[in-house]
Amino acid sequence: MRQVLFLLCLVAAPLYSQEVPASDEPCLAAAQADRPGRSQLVRCDRAIRQPDLPAPQRLAMLMNRGIALLRAGKLDKAESDFDLAIRSAPGLAEAWINKGVVLARQPGREAEAVALISHGIEIGPKEPARAFFARAQALEVAGRLKEAMDDYAAAARADPSWPAPAEELKRFRVERRKVLRG
User: Fold this and answer.
1) What domains are defined for the chain?
2) Which segments of 89-177 does DSSP mark as H helices, in order?
3) Would you call 73 exposed, middle or buried from its count of C-beta atoms within 10 A (0-12, 13-18, 19+)?
4) pTM
5) Would you give the distance in Å from CA 30 to the centre of its chain?
6) 114: Cβ–Cβ under 8 A, 6 or more apart, which residues?
7) Per-residue pLDDT tens for 115-171?
8) Which of 18, 60, 90, 153 meets the CB 3.0–4.6 Å disulfide criterion with 1?
């Protein structure tokens, strides 16, 4: 079995974990670091280039390296890793969602980010609460506040024990106004 750390929101939350083969440890360690250093990324790169890696292991390492690159602020490289993961496993919801998270951090790409995360949600992520939270953040960056509030609420319903969505919802206020029609 392998361990894959999926980033589904801008606050970096693990999505799914299993045992880790020794050869994936450099990429997993880099993905778990708050701000991975150059040496961690180099070790991960070396591990990914191993010949004869089984496809599922290479996919896990690509996902983890993409997360590490995102955390290191290397958005173009992170996007490339998630593109490779999507080509390798188009049914992996987390690859679509993570690419959307990368795009949400790039000005002018918010609509594309929302579309990718929405596609990932349609596929069925392992942790829907974190997927809704990621889309809520992308919607908020795009200025679509009502939809963002709805997704924060969906995240709260999907995982009532996770406090982050409820904290975000506290920032929203719904005002009802009378509308005069004449």
Assistant:
1) 22-169 (1.25.40.10)
2) 93-104, 110-123, 128-141, 145-158, 163-169
3) exposed
4) 0.84
5) 15
6) 100, 104, 135, 138, 139, 142, 144
7) 999 999 999 999 999 999 999 999 999 999 999 999 999 999 999 999 999 999 999
8) 18
